[in-house]
Amino acid sequence: xxxxxxxxLFTGCTAxxxxxxxxxSTYAVAKxxxxxxxxxxxxxxxxxxxxxxxxxxxxxxxxxxxxCYAESRGMTMVTICNTCQLNTAMTKHRxxxxxxxxxxxxxxxxxxxxxxxxxxxxxxxxxxLIDDFGLETIKEKVVTPLSQFNIAPFYGCHNIRPSELQNxxxxxxxxxxxxxxxxxxxxxxxxxxxxxxxxNKCCGFHAELQAPHTAAVLTGKALMGAMDAxxxxxxxxxxxxxxxxxxxxxxxxxxxxxxxxxxxxxxxQMVGLALGCAPSELGLQxxxxxxxxx
Length: 294
What we know:
The protein is 48% helix and 10% strand. It has helices at residues 14-17, 20-33, 51-54, 56-72, 82-96, 99-109, 125-141, 163-169, 181-188, 212-228, 239-247, 249-256, 267-275; strands at residues 6-10, 36-39, 76-79, 122-124, 150-153, 192-193, 233-236, 264-266. It has a four-stranded parallel sheet with strand order 2-1-3-4, sandwiched between helices. Helix 4 (56-72) packs across helix 5, helix 4 (56-72) crosses helix 6 and helix 7 packs parallel to helix 9.
């Protein structure tokens, strides 16, 4: 009998507050596939790529603290947010390659009785499915092939850049200029993957406060690219990208001078549909851009 896959789940803030349907669908998919997820209830925000600009050392301590909770359970940490993945993986890379920095961080962690050791791997749920569960095994689990849909993958930049860092965290090599993991997952689920220029571009989320017009243009171009490629819907592994693409279509339409709107699913919701999960179990009723095809 094969060993059951078990992960320490770092939910991040967004899936707990703004996109609870992503967390629902993560658990639904894990249940279907027999994957055990142990939620790191002690973990806090990763800094969201904003704290790092204000206080780099505090960000390292914060993320090292979160990783410690996975280490204490002897598990791989799995993330479901691209930005959480970037910040935790970046922290692990820096501490594992700089003993002096690691010692300074551990000096602070000792104040709360923790020590970062570097023993836990960190990976995104997308790559856990591909690397650990396997695309061929996922194919065998499909009960409702997505063959009637043209699906546009939207990768989100924090899961694929910098590629030398991200490729440390998973076995499947990903080219930031031509990523294919999400495309291959769509194909494994029986869907038709749509290729378009903007699939590996930024959604604009992290530019929203500093440059709202530029952010809206980026969102609009992504939606427009998928629409022009004849996609029925988009799918993303990042809840922040999902927020931009699902909820900001009015601003995006104004910015690009054209109505742009289409259903945008979380990666877990797409997998769940193919595995036979009920739409309500996946939270498809909670989207702003209505999911009108199920």
